[in-house]
Amino acid sequence: MYGTVKSMSVREMQEMDRRAIEEAGMPSIVLMENAGRSVAEAAGFRKKVAIFCGTGNNGGDGFVAARYLAKKGTKVEVYVVGEMARIKGDARVNLERLQEIGIEIIPSPFLLPIAEGDGEKVRERGDVDLVIDAIFGIGLKGEVKEPARTIIKDLNAKSIPVISVDVPSGLDADTGRVLGEAIKATKTVTMQIAKNGFYRGEGPRYTGEVIVADIGIPEELCAG
Q1: What is the pLDDT of residue 109?
Q2: Is the pLDDT of residue 191 over 90?
Q3: Number of H helices and number of E strands within the chain?
Q4: Who contacts 52 (Cβ-Cβ below 8 Å, separation ≥6)?
Q5: More confident of the two residues 194 and 112
Q6: Hey, how many other C-beta atoms are within 10 angstroms of the C-beta on 119?
Q7: What's the half-sphere exposure (Cβ side, CA atoms, 13 Å) at 205?
Q8: In 3-state terms, what secondary structure has residue 6?
Q9: What gap in Å lies between CA 178 and CA 203, rounded to an integer?
């Protein structure tokens, strides 16, 4: 399903997810699998992709995308932004699946700047031709903190295209407000329905092309 015919608030989307899991019997890990596969499909064929994953479910979507891209022959580099120990549930399952197939997981301290004002702060990634942003999802509250703040700023300074998972990290999905720093995405692959913040405030300047991915939530639950 593609397009931006309608949009939802964060609360409405979270309720729709809950009902899909509890009432329609869709396992949450299946929703994550569908989300990550949709991101990989939007990426298309790439030689080398750097994927920045947070410690929540948005990061879990990124781990799934990494697995699908690796299966297609893409070289993937997966960076975890935050403490690995905080990754739980479905996201942890998908992190472990990546490790089982030999994908290296690089912790975020390796991404910190060497010196202020350095135009190449983020570790050199050679021939990376796409970045996938799976740091924060629609549930982000409050200002973006370190190390994510610096990482987002550094990625925005580069000319590499970026696909954001569900929402550009650092953008309030309800209001379109930038929470200190936000990814300026080339494309945003958002799950099931676009979010209100894409069309409010600074949202339109940060989302890039919005692709709405059908992750299998029953149509009757998408009516709002």
Answers
A1: 52
A2: yes
A3: 6, 9
A4: 62, 79, 81, 131, 132, 133, 134, 135, 151, 155, 169
A5: 194
A6: 7
A7: 9
A8: coil
A9: 8
Pick from 144, 142, 162: nearest CA to 50? 162
pLDDT in tens, 21-61: 888 888 999 999 999 999 999 999 899 999 999 999 999 99
* Domain ranges within the chain, ordered by starting residue: 7-111+120-216
Beta bridge partners of 165: 189
Amino acid, res. 173: A
C-alpha span between 35 and 22 (Å, rounded)? 18
Q: Is the peptide bond before 147 cis (omega within 30 degrees of 0)?
A: yes
How many C-alpha atoms does 20 have within 13 Å on its Cβ side?
A: 25
Token pair 């893409």: residue: 74
What was the pLDDT predicted at 71? 94
pTM: 0.89
3-state secondary structure (DSSP) of residue 213: strand
For the domain covering 7-111+120-216, report its CATH number. Answer: 3.40.50.10260
The first and second tokens of residue 22, run together, are 């509890």
Q: Rounded distance, CA 156 to CA 101, Å?
A: 30
Rounded CA-CA distance 49/51 in Å is: 6
Of the chain, the end-to-end C-alpha distance in Å amounts to 16
Helices 89-100 + 28-43 axis angle, to 10: 50
